[in-house]
């Protein structure tokens, strides 16, 4: 309390206390849920051991919300959900109510306000997105825009429940970082080595950090115009952009030399098959704002083939595993090429070390 | 507002538009920063380049939690020359009372742009768009209302937990409670990062892993049971009556990864010693099947993104621990501390736990943190002779 | 023809011509075989499209044969197989005859001469072996002796056909080289770094070759007593003995510091599952000539469990794959330990990157 | 003979004893080298150490084929101070006329010890135990009788082929003929090694791979068919009658790795587009099922032992090529030459083909030797973003 303006102490409280936000029915049946059902797309019904029932209505959001939008959500929650709401780990909003009668009006209200209801069960849940041009310092493309453009095209998939299983899509606005694994991923790919801004570099850069960041040891210290700088071995460099994350003078971004790549068959859950890393199946698609139509087209090709060929409960990667990658490329019309053969550290473990082959 | 023709194209279509949100907010509040941000974003769309660069802003006593952004084209578009984000730790499970959210909105609108991401990929509430000189006052007001900053930099990061016991019958432990307590323990490490690199914890109530923890956290805490799956034979029968035998075989029996399920007496029998706890059968028949009674957690370690070894999934380190009370949580915390110490001692700069384990060796890691090796940790024993041992 | 003694030219002919050694029935039906059957252990019956039938009787050999032994084989072939015989890729000898009546007498003849008949079908075929103390310059143990000792114990498996599938066993008398993949492998394991014989080294060794040979870059050049020599970083060295192969001054062998390790679940064929590398399941067994009983005991433990638990056509590794490694260790009574966790280049790909676990 | 108590213990037991063989040979021939070798081996058993060291012996015009052994304890046991091995290329398929073998025995007994390994792991006949100064005369006599030396050192090694068309219904090409022709082409490279390291070829008539080629050769030539499995429906029925439906399901249908086999009309139906040519069903029902009619070979490359990347299985590079006539063999030889050139140019010292491909990259390899990439080469497309490409 040494300074007069400061009449309180910072409380290093960590997470906001969770108990406050729990709906009374949740509190009562906490840890005592028995099962769930899917009454219709966008709605979950959870039944507790006590016999209590809880309906969840799920709506899509832009994730980059305004306070106005959030206040609208609060209004809806006050009217239909006793003043409680929650968000999912995938940026959907959820309204919880024990009252079956409120479900339809709630849905109507949301849809009338432009909030689509869906995302439950065997469906396309909103695309997990990142910061992009809106906020990040290293992006080669946008994220919110890509998500919006794609979700516009995939809205039927969000509203329906007629995929073989859940479809989780992710984007990533630089080549390396924040998106996770998804059934489908849309990731920027640089197509030439960084141009080094030697001017900047000598001023701002911690050189050893940048050197250490390169996955293939392509960066060496050098002297340019009498100042310490760096040089890139363009033979080794595979344009990943990791160095740019360590120092903005490693200019990797460029409107023409950044393309999109599509990856598929990632999986996070342990259901049936183990979690899986996704594989590259298309690249060289233009970075074409504001709606990236070429990307959307490929994503839809993949989704169509999966919807048609997948068996119930098969995640996208499990479908591919069953039919084989050769068939995947045939069914989607995508073309396998030499860049899709791994050449990184564990490359060998992805080679077909057998005579197993389909014709 | 200045014209933003490319952004405007993102206003049409059925999915809620962040552009519309931004525009309306900018129009209502008249905050110049919002206008500037839109102009800059439009410019990015036109030129296909980003124009933010980082910097350093914090609040008193903290070293992290604010993602600082300065415009690289402030000469051209000065209104958004700053556009910092405050990462705020959300409540575990992401449940809110509307009062709380409204309060948050009000505080944020007062000090910042009013743009909020619910939520960031790590689980933070991201308050996006504030000037450096307003950060402290904004934080102070938030903090007085129970909010605290989240992680950034080379320290503990914000945690995330699934709905868990709050609304899910599969939860094998209290994800929310554990998340809250563990993150309270690590609160200093969140605020004052001083490790080799970031460290993430995520809490999923069962192996469905609705927080994607295995792929994205240094320690993934996954609900697990050790005894047999609970089966309600009548409900199995009811399920078969409704759905048919064909569906039972095709969608349950045949999809068990270890073929641990067989048909029996018109229902099913599970060879629990061969069940790998994948969750599939429980997912299909939640009314009939539930996790066993001896519940707890499994710990997987080393999940992370691509830098620089390529994407890494976390791997099984502790197959089962009870997680029923405070003591169990304390024991977990002790172990996590031990692990972080080992990693901080043995890791290189910018090296995540999984990379350190791989580089130094699992054996050394286990020795270092005092855990027993077990066959559960690997898909198969080593296939190369390159090991050293003394007898 | 410049020198009087030399009245011929060396003919670089390559392989000995194969046609000469083909039995007439083989020649006639070459490429026209239709199917095979197993009339009894040690005997194959091949039927050709022409209707011709060919019986094969298979016998075990020591592989390190004497001309006397080979002449005995020739005598038998002359009597029962029209003067033809062949060897299998696994050192068995085979007598081919179209004449069913000759089969039993042939078997009797072989057995009476101490040549066991067997090795066909779902059986233990002779252990593939290497040179060992008999001839190699780098062995840490013998090969022929290990094979003889073990085959004595496994003879019933050779003579019967009651395993789930073929059992292929291999040995290897140094840690790195000539044995291939097998259902079970018996391989020497060194337990301390090489002792450098600096005296020798400076005289005979191509230093850079030795430095380059080390898989973990543990060898550095140095100077000892004013002469160029090498030094080993004992922290890094994992006692593989690769350097000893490059230079005998890197003395890795030692009667006490060499033990045996047992590996299982290798597979060469593509039948059902892909070819597979074998995994370490026991080590630290003594290098105990002349009969290595401790090794034999472990091999038998493994074979017993496999014979009991494997389903028809399951190779050893496929059995393990089905029941899980945990169960393998339980059924065999072997103990999993930390050295069995991979820590080499592709270690990560062997970690259990999932929550899949059995209790 | 001197006493060899430890070796003597290997005389008992049902398996034919190499010790007994050695002893009898030594007693009959009275060759001192044999006695010396036994003494030295006994000494190795006593002391658990080996006592041979290498050297260099060849025949005129050749640089390889003799594995040279000098005793390190010649002071103690002078009788076996030399004990060299001559590697001789066996006939493809390992078929012999007794005359031929007897002749070989006679020549060998004349010049060497009379100890022969049939066969070495690579497929050579190994004539074990000769003095350096007798090597040339022995070779000359052998060579006049049609025999040639095999490989050693950094060159082409001796090939091996399975029984193939000589005695196997599964053979998809003529393994013996191809082996003979190809090795004749490479005969110079066998005798005068001058590459980075050894190079091995093995020829298996089908994916059962009875020569273990995938695991042990730089190029594995594996029989393959491209059209549908040939099925004799009547024989399928007959099989089911003999063996029963249960066995059909448990041992055929259920064991197909891609579940390409289904029950139909009391027999089976194969979805050939989903068959991966594993051989299993053909193995179980050889009378009813045979490889298709469009036959040829698949080529897998990079198989080798442990040095220094750990054991490496060869991987699929060419899924199918016809292999019916001389021309096809010539084309294979051209490709093999191309590959060896690339490897010799790009490889490091003591680096096998598989290691070079892995280090340099599959893409570069394919470009270098002019082969098209195909999905058959991998189990899945790359999972890391570390690739470079220009558009
Ligand atoms: C609400 C949420 C948890 C939360 O705390 O927010 C949640 C809730 C449920 N999940 Fe989940 N999952 C949630 C994210 C996830 C994620 C992570 C993600 O979306 O990024 C995964 C991993 C995805 C992956 O593998 O890539 C996930 C994998 C599952 C699975 C496994 C699906 C599979 O077969 O692979 C199930 C089982 C099922 O579908 O029956 C499941 C099941 C469920 C159940 C049925 C659990 C229950 O009994 O209540 C819940 C309703 C599912 C539904 O909507 O169909 N949940 N679930 C998350 C909703 C995300 C969204 O808005 O779309
Ligand atoms: C904001 C957020 C994306 C989003 O829009 O949701 C984000 C944004 C950034 N991430 Fe991330 N990461 C975010 C979640 C993730 C995740 C997902 C997760 O946490 O579950 C990952 C993958 C999991 C992981 O940790 O590996 C992730 C992996 C990375 C990495 C690569 C780490 C690695 O070891 O491979 C970097 C690069 C680095 O740290 O140098 C990175 C770096 C960054 C930086 C700090 C880039 C930079 O150097 O400036 C980004 C700041 C953007 C900004 O302007 O705010 N971000 N980042 C997420 C954090 C929000 C939150 O706090 O809730
Ligand atoms: C004679 C020989 C080829 C030769 O040119 O010498 C041979 C001959 C046959 N093999 Fe083989 N295989 C021979 C070595 C191999 C090897 C290599 C080895 O032994 O080192 C393998 C790979 C082993 C591995 O995977 O590690 C091999 C894997 C097979 C298989 C696949 C077995 C499986 O299910 O994995 C079959 C199919 C079968 O058993 O029906 C097979 C089938 C056969 C058949 C039935 C083929 C036929 O129709 O004639 C032959 C009789 C088999 C038998 O004895 O049961 N052969 N076979 C080799 C005899 C070796 C021996 O003396 O024991
Ligand atoms: C004789 C033989 C073992 C046997 O008793 O059958 C053998 C013996 C030797 N091998 Fe081998 N290898 C023999 C087949 C193999 C095989 C199996 C095969 O060819 O199918 C392999 C595994 C396949 C492969 O090529 O990788 C094999 C992998 C090695 C290696 C490791 C190569 C690698 O890249 O990992 C070495 C070490 C080296 O080359 O430096 C080696 C080295 C040696 C040397 C030359 C060791 C040395 O430096 O002196 C041995 C000479 C022993 C001697 O005194 O005769 N030997 N060696 C086999 C050759 C007989 C023949 O010609 O028929
Ligand atoms: S993915 Fe890359 S560009 Fe996008 S927010 Fe993350 S670090 Fe920034
Ligand atoms: S772009 Fe990637 S590979 Fe190239 S220099 Fe930078 S960090 Fe290295
Ligand atoms: S992880 Fe399991 S417990 Fe948590 S919400 Fe998902 S299904 Fe429920
Ligand atoms: S949880 Fe998974 S592994 Fe266990 S019985 Fe059910 S489906 Fe099988
Ligand atoms: S395995 Fe080793 S010791 Fe044995 S023969 Fe081969 S190289 Fe020599
Ligand atoms: S024994 Fe192996 S690891 Fe040790 S120095 Fe020699 S080559 Fe290197
Ligand atoms: S590899 Fe095929 S063709 Fe050759 S012997 Fe074996 S089963 Fe017959
Ligand atoms: S050969 Fe193998 S993959 Fe093909 S149908 Fe038969 S069992 Fe299936």
Automatic annotation (TrEMBL), chains A, C:
Cofactor annotation: siroheme; [4Fe-4S] cluster
Alphabetical UniProt keywords: 4Fe-4S, Iron, Iron-sulfur, Metal-binding, Oxidoreductase
InterPro entries in alphabetical order: 4Fe4S_Fe-S-bd, 4Fe4S_Fe_S_CS, DsrB, NiRdtase/SiRdtase_haem-b_fer, Nit/Sulf_reduc_fer-like_dom_sf, NO2/SO3_Rdtase_4Fe4S_dom, NO2/SO3_Rdtase_4Fe4S_prot, NO2/SO3_Rdtase_4Fe4S_sf
Keyword Transport attached: no
Annotated Pfam families: Fer4, NIR_SIR, NIR_SIR_ferr
GO cellular component, one term: sulfite reductase complex (NADPH)
One biological process term in Gene Ontology: sulfate assimilation
Protein name (record): Dissimilatory-type sulfite reductase subunit beta
Gene: dsrB
